[in-house]
Amino acid sequence: MRSLLHRVEVLRAIAHPVRIRILEELLKGVKCVSDFEDFLDISQPNLSQHLSLLRREGIVNFYMDGRLRCYFLKDPIIPDLLKVIKKDYVEELPAPSCCPVTNKGKYPRERRR
Q1: Those residues with Cβ within 8 angstroms of residue 24's Cβ, 6 or more apart along the chain or in another chain
Q2: Per the count of CB atoms within 10 A, which of 69, 75, 91, 112 is most buried?
Q3: Which fold has domain 4-86?
Q4: CB atoms inside a 10 Å sphere around CB 73
Q5: Contact, 73 vs 59, CB < 8 A?
Q6: Sorting pLDDT into bands at 50, 70 and 90, what band is 113?
């Protein structure tokens, strides 16, 4: 079982638009570095930095096919995280009835002073 700290580190590691796009592509299957270069408008060294960070955090891994590095997803939480990130939330949660914004009710507990 992964610790809460590990999950926080995973969230921190994927919190970049380029890394999200990399992970979305890896959801479709194994990709080599040249595959990423076809759709990402970043330099090869920059791409390597992103992949290295994802690998260091245990999110992805790779194998060598000749001279090609072929990357694949390793951490099972990634598909679930990407699904949440892509979900379109239409409304905000309602304010509580004791909220000053709604001017209704009082705080349900005793106030500390």
Answers
A1: 82
A2: 75
A3: Arc Repressor Mutant, subunit A (1.10.10)
A4: 21
A5: yes
A6: low
Distance of alpha carbon 90 from alpha carbon 13, whole angstroms: 27
Q: What are phi and psi of 108, to 5 degrees?
A: -75, -5
pTM summary value: 0.80
In the chain, what's the furthest Cα-to-Cα distance?
Answer: 69
Q: For residue 83, give both structure tokens.
A: 């699904």
* Beta-bridge partners for 62: 71
pLDDT digits (tens, 9 = 90+) for 37-56: 888 989 999 999 999 999 99
Residue 41, classed as helix, strand or coil, is coil
